[in-house]
Specification:
Elements: H1 19-42, H2 45-52, H3 56-63, H4 66-89, H5 95-107, H6 117-127, H7 134-148, H8 153-156, H9 163-172
Helix pairs in contact: 1-2, 1-4, 1-6, 3-4, 4-5, 4-6, 4-7
């Protein structure tokens, strides 16, 4: 969800018409790759700039710094991941199957396509949060809980005391 309580938009991250938009998009994709590969602490502004074939100052110009670039990259990753989960769960009625498909998507070691940094960044934040996108993580967890538990956990038979419910609650937090 965005700051207004709306779900994450399934953004493709495609650039707008302007040259600055294309530069920002290229930097955002490079930042996402860098953060997905190295985590926030291991990533560097120089590494992002090198991946984007851009000037280091461009990161400050477009994002204001490494933390803001991380937050923007995570928002884009979260939107894409929610869209992937929505597609994966489309038409699936069984609660257990919904849980299994979500976990399979989250824990896939080799995402499709393998270059999907969004998948890797979301997985990294779920399994080893670094704390730089806490608001976005909370919104992502709420969106995912709604997709997996449309009527809430009690309506699906996935109460936290049951195995599938316990796993989801550990990943998504209380609903």
């Amino acid at each position: 969800m965005n700051g207004e309580g709306e779900p994450f938009a399934p953004s493709t991250g495609s650039p707008g018409p302007g040259r600055g938009d294309r530069s920002r998009h290229r930097l955002l994709e490079a930042a996402g790759e860098e953060f997905a590969d190295r985590g926030f602490h291991g990533a560097s502004v120089r590494g992002i700039a090198e991946r984007a074939e851009a000037n280091v100052a461009a990161i400050s110009y477009h994002f204001g710094g490494k933390q803001a670039a991380y937050r923007e990259a995570f928002k884009l990753a979260a939107g894409r991941f929610v869209a992937a989960v929505r597609r994966e769960l489309s038409g699936v009625e069984s609660s257990e199957e919904r849980v299994g498909r979500f976990l399979g998507l989250l824990l896939t070691l080799e995402p499709d396509p393998p270059s999907d940094w969004c998948h890797r960044l979301v997985r990294r934040e779920f399994l080893a949060p670094e704390g730089w996108a806490e608001d976005s993580i909370r919104r992502l967890r709420a969106d995912l809980a709604h997709l997996i538990w449309p009527g809430g956990p009690g309506a699906t038979g996935l109460e936290p005391g049951r195995p599938c419910g316990a796993v989801l609650q550990a990943l998504l937090g209380p609903t």
